[in-house]
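Hey, sorry to bother you again with one of my protein questions. A protein chain has come my way and I'm curious about its shape. I'm sending you its amino acid sequence along with the backbone structure tokens. I owe you a coffee for this, so here goes:
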Amino acid sequence: MPANGKHRRKKSRPLSRGILAAGAGGAVLALPLIGATGAHAAEPAAPAAKSAAVTPGAPAAKHSPKTYTVVSGDYLAKIATAKKIKGGWQKLYKDNRDVIGDNPSLIVPGMKLTLGAKASGTAEKPATAKHAASEAKPATKAEPAAEKAAPAGGKAATADSGASQSNASGWSAPVENPTVTTQYHVAGASWSSGYHTGSDFQAASGTSVRSIGPGTVVSAGWGGAYGNEIVIQHSDGMYSQYAHLSSLEVSAGQTVTGGQEIGLSGSTGNSTGPHLHFEVRTGPSYGSDVDPIAYLRSHGVSI
């Protein structure tokens, strides 16, 4: 027994790794809290946020190409100049060939052309461009369903011919070296009116067509059965009409002189082949026709 009767108590070992806590259910061992630094030490660092800035030099978003709707009197060269198309009418035609077709001279009102970029697909010509006589005028007053052109290299049986002349007063034939292949007032079932309302001139596609005298363009555009046509009012109050054209080079309201080129011949509308259908009228519309050859001769044009 130790001196002084005191017992030496055994030293209890401190809990170096835990804390003893008393609870209703008995003692429990609580693990020590680990500092925040240690808790996240093993976690990978969060990735840096990506910059939202656009990389310098990246291409800008593409804009939709501009379009243009053809109106009466338009032709590719005119549109290309007005819209400042780089590459001219050739570039405009190349970009819209699926819309226009194989003939760059033939565009009709209502066509939608892409400017400065190739069209994404094909497009139908407007309904007004269908070759149907009924769309131009009533069935009882229409040009023939298929006006016949003279055989290539030959003259029709009723043909007249003569050298083209421009006289001092500025009047001329509508084509160079005119040859009439179908006379005025020729009767036949081919025409709903019962007769031919004008005179047809032999003209290969692309032949220069000229105003017969000084005047003002009344209309230039699609004329249904007549195809692409031009109507001009002259100083004496009479009107001349040029039909089945492949290209128009004047527009409504434009002043022209006798012998000035106004378009190119073709076979648009109701026609079986290239030629020029020419009329002289007392008014601007169908049904007011007079003998065109007699009218030309009255102005000193020899045909």
In short: Residues 66-128 form a domain with the Membrane-bound Lytic Murein Transglycosylase D; Chain A fold (CATH 3.10.350.10).
